[in-house]
Amino acid sequence: MDKIKISNLEVYCHHGVFAEENVLGQKFLVSAVLYTEIEEAAFEDDISKSINYGEVCHYIKELMEKYTFKLLESVAECLASRILMRFPLAKRIKLEIKKPWAPIMLPIETVSVEIEREWHTAYLSIGSNLGDKKDNLDQAIALLNADEYSKVTKISEYITTEPVGGVEQDDFLNAALEVKTLRSPKRLLEIIGVIERQLKRERKVHWGPRTIDLDIIFYDDIVMDTKELTIPHPEMEKRGFVLKPLLEIAPKSIHPIFKKTVVQLLDELDD
Prior knowledge:
The protein is α+β, with helices and mostly antiparallel strands. The chain folds into two domains: about 1-120, GTP Cyclohydrolase I, domain 2 (2-Layer Sandwich); about 120-270, Alpha-Beta Plaits. About 30% of the residues lie in helices and about 30% in strands. It is built from eight helices and eleven strands. The strands form three sheets. Strands 5, 6, 7, 8 and 9 form a five-stranded antiparallel β-sheet that branches. Strands 1-2-3-4 form a four-stranded antiparallel β-sheet. The protein has a two-stranded antiparallel ribbon with strand order 10-11. A hairpin with a 4-residue loop joins strand 10 and strand 11. Helix 3 crosses helix 4 and helix 7 packs antiparallel against helix 8. The longest helix has 15 residues, at about 70-85. The two termini are about 40 Å apart. The model has no long low-confidence stretch (mean pLDDT about 95).
């Protein structure tokens, strides 16, 4: 991927742990590498098809002067995410913030924090079988879109499916979502938990009825297994209510463990 680089942009602002830093301020140096595709802009010689690095520099200055943080880590996180949201042609950013006047009472050239952030693609399964099922799904999608770090980019058709697990209950309304997000899997799971609580999801019976159910099925090609979260979602390959909606919006997505597409997984399930 092509790169646009900004090196050592000088900004005077008021970040730091000590009160004096917040009052008096000091110099910071910001460097950024923006990963994008420049071929179209280059052939057409058109700045609107590329990232205007002048606008990026002024936006960095604006953000650093607008907010006050104690930690360089917080400054870097704010800048990286805001730049990616403000400039949609930037797919990924590598950002370094240097603090040459760091008050550590020792001779030092500079200290810095360097991070990389990018847009990720997650696929979610969503379902409801209590109350107004369609409204529950619509509300959950709206709440996901309300999160500034995530945006729903594809929604499958809502389909009716029979419940599984042996608990007598009403049929489900299910769908699949494609979500572009700056959140890590852990942070995305936290937002899902907030949404489920807002829509009064109760976990009284395993496999029981619920107003809303949101699960992360894929997140890029990540494989992870922690106490809180497993990706890809366990046994998704055995669940038609997951695979059928997912087929509509991501038929060629590959299961990172089985190395099979959604089409292949659904064909095997049908067989």
